[in-house]
Write a structure and sequence with these properties.
The protein is α/β, with parallel strands linked by helices. The chain has two domains: 62 residues, no CATH class; 151 residues, Rossmann fold, CATH 3.40.50. Helices cover 38% and strands 18% of the residues. The strands form two sheets. It has a seven-stranded mixed sheet with strand order 6-2-1-7-8-10-9. It has a three-stranded antiparallel sheet with strand order 3-5-4. The model has no long low-confidence stretch (mean pLDDT 93).
Length: 276
């Protein structure tokens, strides 16, 4: 299916007219890629896509859910998780309560990664875990904590590289946190992890903080990269105002604080920024 750049604005306008969502400040290139994929999936040309968006409420909601890019994995970007384990998370050990918000949590593998590290540091019991995403379908997957085994076999390796880093003996078995049912092609997270987070459907761009509190750590990875600079600045300010003093913002490997927001944060290491 073909799509022209000039088709993007009519698409954005149609969604604004018929829903509460405004994708005006999303990257045009990213939107174009997502729309082409949607059109190919549903075998629609642009005219057919626009007609269904205007007249089919269920289809319109499905399109909205498919626009954000789901990029996640258990301990994805190993260096980040080692940094969190060894430098960032231990700094909060003296606090009575710790609060963590995964903003744009997708299917939840990073939520589970964080909980595993917190548990290894004896911090999970005193930590409140919150997660939000625009797409309720990915939140459902995260709540269930069940992932495809064959497709995600590398999780066993990333788990070992982070959790057992520098351990030559008494290594932690993955079974402490999840089990594998190869006959059903499933990785199933253990109940004490699945029951911990509080989830909310949230549009990070439009909605206020749905949890009505500030956080010690906000994880917002591989979300901001799909926004234009104006929207990136707005989101960085939202995240800044929802961080506690000495709070930490964790971003994706290819995401950096924008020039306009540099005065709000100081770099604490690769992919980690502290609130000034």
């Amino acid at each position: 299916m073909s799509l022209h750049i000039q088709d993007i604005q009519p698409f954005i306008n149609a969604l604004k007219e018929r829903s509460d969502y405004d994708f005006s400040n999303y990257s045009v290139k990213s939107l174009k890629r997502r729309l082409i994929r949607i059109m190919n999936t549903f075998r629609l040309d642009f005219t057919g896509l626009m007609e269904k968006i205007r007249n089919d409420d269920i289809f319109r909601e499905e399109v909205i859910k498919r626009i954000p890019v789901k990029t996640t994995g258990l301990f994805r970007d190993i260096d980040l998780w080692l940094q969190l384990k060894e430098n960032i998370l231990p700094a909060f050990s003296s606090k009575k309560r710790i609060s963590v918000w995964h903003a744009g949590s997708s299917t939840g593998q990073e939520v589970y990664s964080m909980m595993i590290l917190l548990n290894e540091l004896d911090l999970l019991d005193k930590t409140d875990i919150f997660a939000s995403d625009l797409n309720p379908d990915v939140l459902k997957i995260s709540r269930e904590g069940i992932f495809e085994f064959f497709y995600n076999k590398e999780y066993l390796s990333t788990f070992d590289k982070v959790v057992n880093h520098n351990l030559s003996e008494n290594k932690i078995s993955y079974e402490k946190y999840f089990r594998i049912d190869a006959t059903k092609d499933q990785i199933i997270m253990n109940d004490f992890l699945r029951e911990k987070p509080v989830y909310k459907k949230t549009d990070l761009v439009r909605d206020e903080n749905p949890f009505k509190q500030k956080f010690d750590i906000i994880v917002c990875r591989n979300v901001i990269i799909y926004f234009n600079e104006e929207l990136q600045n707005r989101v960085f300010k939202i995240l800044y105002h929802n961080l506690n003093e000495k709070g930490i913002l964790v971003v994706g490997l290819y995401e950096n604080i924008t020039t306009e927001s540099e005065s709000l944060f100081q770099k604490k290491g690769e992919m980690c920024y502290g609130k000034k």
